[in-house]
Specification:
Blueprint: H1 3-6, E1 9-14, H2 18-31, E2 35-40, H3 43-52, E3 58-61, H4 70-77, E4 88-92, H5 97-105, E5 110-113, H6 119-132, H7 141-148
Parallel strand pairs: 1-2, 1-3, 3-4, 4-5
Helix pairs in contact: 2-6, 3-4
């Protein structure tokens, strides 16, 4: 078992075009068997799925969504562009290079046009982004309870 299989990466792919979303999900699965791909067809559904799955390691989002702009998703996930807590990668059908530049300035780790980007490039970018962006430590609730309540290890002497 190699290093990638020991540490699977959970990816949320948000794109309203079913055919393109499934195609890119398959490309990512082919690139690495350690990738766990979750899909959402709308920005709202993607945000809900991200909030309900705190173990998501990376989000790949299309800018052209039916219910909201991909920039709105990006801003919700990365409110402070200089200190993201989750890597967001833009993968869009839009061709204006200024839109990709704006996404990068807004907090995206990378921005690509679909027509000119291979699954290998996206896969490698995801792995690099996940390694680069420090994730906040999330303590499971059960562990939190154990940290708050610790039985005393030594007897306590009470002075009268």
């Amino acid at each position: 078992m190699n290093e990638q299989e020991l540490h699977p990466i959970s990816i949320l792919l948000i794109d309203s075009n079913d055919e393109e979303r499934h195609y890119h999900a398959e490309c990512l699965k082919t690139y690495s068997s350690s990738y766990r791909i979750y899909e959402a067809a709308t920005g709202q559904r993607g945000l809900e799925q991200f909030k309900s799955s705190p173990q998501t390691d990376c989000v790949v989002v299309e800018l052209d969504l039916p219910d909201m702009s991909g920039y709105k998703v990006l801003l919700d996930l990365v409110p402070i562009a200089s200190s993201p807590t989750v890597p967001v990668i833009i993968l869009t059908r839009l061709t204006n290079p200024l839109l990709l530049e704006l996404a990068m300035r807004t907090g995206a780790q990378a921005a690509f046009r679909k027509v000119s980007t291979s699954g290998e490039v996206i896969g490698l970018t995801i792995r690099t982004a996940v390694a680069t962006v420090p994730r906040p430590v999330r303590t499971p609730l059960a562990d939190l309870g154990r940290r708050i309540y610790r039985p005393l290890q030594r007897p306590v002497h009470v002075l009268d």
